[in-house]
Amino acid sequence: MGPRTTTEVYIVENVTAARDTIVGGNTSLGIELGSTRIKAVLIGPDHQPLATGGHEWKSKLENGVWTYDIDAVWSGLQAAYADLASAVESAYGVQLETVGAMGFSAMMHGYMAFDAAGELLVPFRTWQNTITGESAHALTKLFQYNIPQRWSIAHLYQAVLNGEAHVGKIDYLTTLAGYVHWRLTGERVLGVGDASGMFPIDTATGQFDAGMLAQFDSLVADHRYPWKLRDILPAVLPAGREAGRLTEEGARLLDPSGKLRAGVPVAPAEGDAGTGMVATNSVARRTANVSAGTSIFAMVVLEGPLKQLHEEIDLVTTPAGDLVGMAHCNNGAVDLQAWVGLFGEAAAALGAQVDTTALFQTLYTAALEGDADGGGMLAYNYLAGEHVVGLEAGRPLFVRTPHSSFTLANFMRTHLFAALGALRVGMDILLKDEGVELDSMFAHGGLFKTKGVAQRFLAAAMNTPVSVGEVAGEGGAWGMALLASFLRADGESLADWLASSVFGGAAIETAEPEAADVEGFDRFMERYRDGLAIERAAVDTLH
Fold it and tell me: What contacts 531, CB < 8 A, 6 or more positions away?
């Protein structure tokens, strides 16, 4: 079942049974605060959505810092919940007064620091900010563990380096999801997946790494702050452990109408990476998921620690606490979409009326007829910088030689390959340098909507079977609803529960890597790596 707008109605075979399920509270609610939308999903015992609600919002740049107003957090949550409750009443004729379990997720990382009175000390600093380069570099060197700029600990140490007066007043430091959870339950708790984007996790204990905590305390000891780092961080819990209950105050915060009753069990708050893994059934070891849209990234569940430090790879965990290697690339399908748009303009200039979906399908499918390596051509989709190849800025490029086979099929194949090029560089670190082994990879996002094209090329790029299918439900909010439902699982691991209870009958299609495609993509990547000098020259020359 794909994403829907709030105005769409779910087709439920037995409305009476669904109504009884809602009234009886045999449901689970997940709410996720994404970067542009807050979404609520109510699911039944079969884990399928009964209703959804949503609210649009966006960050703002204030004094050089990307932030969201705290008031907007609560007005947005209330609007999304009210939209959901309205959808329930419209579809089933009952008011939403309780649920069996609930959970909250949000964008990971960032910085929310509170004093002892629970007041926010500085405006929320989101993951979007790149103002912590000095601290991220210093902490990576100290811990010998990659600390990206967006991590909470990087923001904290940058505030220390900047001499910000508020640091000595910090009583609690958490993420956006952790903040919402705290206000609704009174519990200073965080799911391990979201916590892993604040500070490194020791996967043997499932807690923040004790050795690194001590290193940080020593690093800032001269400042004589009244806190130790562990004291101001949330408690860490794995999926399946109850993390508190909705308080009366929390119920009124979420539903000012007064209909929602307190006492609902609440799952540990999670980050959007974790809910995405749950929603794609990619939490078991040796599994991965690839998401391709404006950016493209892969989450790979590892069997153990990496052998060495790689600043190109982020290390987080699943909601169950297993280590995950993340290869994240800033540039996804945007440049490719621009080329498709150009062909659409050409068609319109000739008087043709071409449906956008048909245009994408026609052009993407043409790529299947191209030469295995794209005909000797080269493209870079870098509208922005790309950390994985060491570029702080980007310039989209298309390059060919007089001997290239310049056909539509090869042109499209080259640009589809280019959309996967930076990801391949990052994944080579995991699959080749580190020897990570994969049993399966699930792909989702707009790039994979045309059946059998990008899926086939990704299988070639990774030399791994790639599956697609209608299993991602309502995205991260659905993943959070599943984590809430997992509170009622009977001792199963999260991976086993998802495989048996949620995704057992899911319809998926798997593409095996074809030898000719694998060889062709490898030849393309040789050009791609060699041609990075051209891209660097373009960045230096074209201002």
Answer: 378, 380, 399
Query: What DSSP letter does each residue of 336-401 carry, written as one string?
Result: HHHHHHHHHHHHHHTT----HHHHHHHHHHHGGGS-TT-TT-EEE--SS-BGGGTBSS---EEE--
| Integer angstrom CA distances of residue 424 from 58, 158, 282, 427, 428 | 31, 32, 19, 5, 6
Cβ atoms of 261 and 85 closer than 8 Å = no
- Compute the distance between CA of residue 105 and CA of residue 478 in angstroms, rounded to an integer: 10
Say if 321 falls within a structural domain. Answer: yes
Residue 116 lies in a domain: no
How far is 427 from 313, CA to CA, in rounded Å? 9
pLDDT in tens, 129-183: 889 999 999 999 999 999 999 999 999 999 999 999 999 999 999 999 999 999 9
Burial class from Cβ neighbours inside 10 Å (0-12, 13-18, 19+) for residue 223 reads exposed
Between the alpha carbon of residue 17 and those of residues 7, 9, 21, the distances in Å are 22, 16, 6
CA triplet 501, 507, 513: central angle to 5 degrees? 115
Q: What is the CATH number of the domain that holds 314?
A: 3.30.420.40
| 84: enclosing H helix or E strand | helix 70-92
Give 22-60 pLDDT, tens digit per residue.
999 999 999 999 988 999 999 999 999 999 999 999 999
CA distance 276 to 262: 28
Least Cα distance to 308 among 453, 497, 176, 144 occurs for: 144
For the chain, the straight-line distance linking the first and the last C-alpha, in angstroms and rounded, comes to: 44
Residue 84 predicted with pLDDT over 90: yes
- Encode pLDDT of 193-248 as tens digits: 999 999 999 999 999 999 999 999 999 999 999 999 999 999 999 999 999 999 99
Domain count for the chain, please give it. Answer: 1
Residue-number span of the structural domain to which 321 is assigned: 281-471+494-543
